[in-house]
């Protein structure tokens, strides 16, 4: 059984995240199972989160995938909110205060900061990894880089269309 113990600090949690993700996905190629387990890993490993999960590109919009947290927005248009912006621009977006982000979509009113990483395969966006926190300015470059690595591990470890 795979066990996750909360890390003593945010910095050590980030250092451990890629290794934990690799170990968790080892031997499993199913994308849904892998996304579900990564959502749980992120949610229970990184401190001060209230949502962690995936949205997938379907029919030209983002559609809710596996996640941990309160129920979420089901569909997000490209270019809308933090998730739609990250997908459209094919780049990670870190937002210290979501209430100051133009067009922010408030799926959970408790969220105050957010980081969204595009999940890329073959140069195209297949989805996004979205992580929210109730704490303002919770995410920075270190979190963005760690989550980008997790997204890469997901793509390498999963059978994707």
From TrEMBL:
Q: Which SUPFAM superfamilies does the entry mention?
A: GAF domain-like
Q: Which family does it belong to?
A: Belongs to the free Met sulfoxide reductase family.
Q: Which Gene3D superfamilies match?
A: 3.30.450.40
Question: Which keywords does the record carry?
Answer: Oxidoreductase
- What cellular component terms from Gene Ontology apply here? cytosol
Enzyme nomenclature, EC number = 1.8.4.14
Q: What is this protein called?
A: Free methionine-R-sulfoxide reductase
User: Which EC main class describes this enzyme?
Assistant: oxidoreductase
Keyword Calcium found: no
Q: Which PROSITE patterns does the UniProt entry name for this protein?
A: UPF0067
Provide the species name: Usitatibacter rugosus
Q: Which InterPro entries has this protein been placed in?
A: FRMsr_CS (IPR000614), GAF (IPR003018), GAF-like_dom_sf (IPR029016), Phosphatase_reg/MetRdx (IPR051330)
Q: Which residues form the GAF domain?
A: 16-158
Task: Give GO terms: molecular function aspect only.
Answer: L-methionine-(R)-S-oxide reductase activity
Q: Which Pfam families match?
A: GAF_2
The record, for PANTHER family, names: FREE METHIONINE-R-SULFOXIDE REDUCTASE, GAF/PUTATIVE CYTOSKELETAL PROTEIN
């Amino acid at each position: 059984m795979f066990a996750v113990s909360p890390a003593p600090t945010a910095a050590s949690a980030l250092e451990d995240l890629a290794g934990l993700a690799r170990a968790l996905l080892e031997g499993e190629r199913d994308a849904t199972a892998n996304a579900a387990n990564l959502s749980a890993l992120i949610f229970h490993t990184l401190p001060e989160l209230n949502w962690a999960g995936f949205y997938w590109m379907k029919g030209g919009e983002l559609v809710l995938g596996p996640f941990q947290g309160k129920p979420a927005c089901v569909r997000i248009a490209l270019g809308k909110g933090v998730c739609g912006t990250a997908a459209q621009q094919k780049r990670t977006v870190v937002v210290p205060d979501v209430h100051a982000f133009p067009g922010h979509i408030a799926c959970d009113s408790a969220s105050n900061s957010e980081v969204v990483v595009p999940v890329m395969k073959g140069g195209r966006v297949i989805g996004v990894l979205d992580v929210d926190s109730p704490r303002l300015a919770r995410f920075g470059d270190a979190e963005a880089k760690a989550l980008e690595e997790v997204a890469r591990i997901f793509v390498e470890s999963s059978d994707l269309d």
